[in-house]
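Morning F.,

Quick status update on the modeling queue. The single chain you submitted on Monday has been processed. Sequence for confirmation:
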Amino acid sequence: MVGTRTQPVSREGVASPKFADADLQSLAEKYGTPYFLIDELTLRGKVGEVERGFADFKGLFRVAYSVKANFNPSVIRAFASEGIMFDLTAPSELHFILKCGGSPESVIYTSITETYAEYETVLQSGVRKVVVASYNGLLNLAEAAAKTGKTVSTMIRVNPEVHVHAELRGSMGHGKFGLRFEGPSTDTAFQALKKVLSTRYLKFEGFHFHLGSQIEDPSCYGEALDKLEGFILDSRKRLGHFDVNTIDIGGGLPSSYGKRVQTPKDLGGRLVGKLNSLIESIGSRYTLVAESGRYLTAESTVLVSRVVNVKNFGETKYVYVDAGYHLLPDAALLRHEYPVEVVPAGKLNGHKTVLVGRLCDPLDIFPTSSRSRLAGAEVGKLVVFREVGAYSIVMNMPFHSQPRPYVLMRDGKGAYAVARKGQDVETLFMDEGGDCLPN
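Structure tokens below.
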């Protein structure tokens, strides 16, 4: 059973949006290069893909968007109109949600710092579902709840300490996130659960875990659920019966970046049987939440740049574009192989092509995937980077005093509009303190 939407506007997902060459050229002439271009229908389609992947789950299933992946207001508005939930880690993200039509009731607040001040802020703003991941953070939440007089549905973030085969791991030895089930200190899931069950204004809601990003082998989810099931049953023997209303399995759904990866259908097929048996085992028809930032946004967006120079070095042709890793940090940090294509396409010439950016840094070389098509790259042509919608726009850097580029969106009716204005160099100068000290 899928959560009710405010507006039923989803459609079948599109793996990677297609834009007419003429449209890309026209937008480049109007707004300059580089620029980002988001496809709204792809965002909405990805929500539907995740929901269909878990369609056989016997309880209520909800998708939660991890806002950290891309907090552009146009993206948030699209997801808010889909009626999904939002995973937040900061009051500033909550500000964006509320300004873009999201409701505080749709928020799962999962802080990293877990301070009293932020808990007081989000509770006063209407958030009622909060995830805690440390005993001190739990005490801060209890104090904020008592101060505001608000009853908080409290979830406990656990670190199930299972091996995760993923690009970025959030379990097994990575103690920054979540609580161990048991241990000698108060920073355990058991001690946190005991405290929640005995604290006024805190209502125990359920459990949360996040295993990693770009998970390649989904068996880690099954191992984590097995450990969680054992913990629930053992804790009931020690503390008495308590209901489990929500289980949040976090994110990790991979985006392809040109490779064959697990899809929501693949993951759901592997997990739904276990998730349904867990309902029977713990006697609670819990709500299942699956979070996603990267999967929901990555394939929706392209970065359009222009070839500004070429250099032949033996049998290798270096193609220089006016973008750089300041716009696609994961190209340097994680060596993401974004699918890349030249517009208009050309013919193969036998050269090995290396795509490089405009930064004075040897790391500013773009790894390209097997899906990349660089034939015909010449000065003046466009180079389009695909699947750049996650963590790129939000991590832009002004390296070499580079102003922020335009962000555009193609809406559900096919019209193009500005989603974020481009920045000029004078505005960047002032933002960096140009008027703070006299000459």
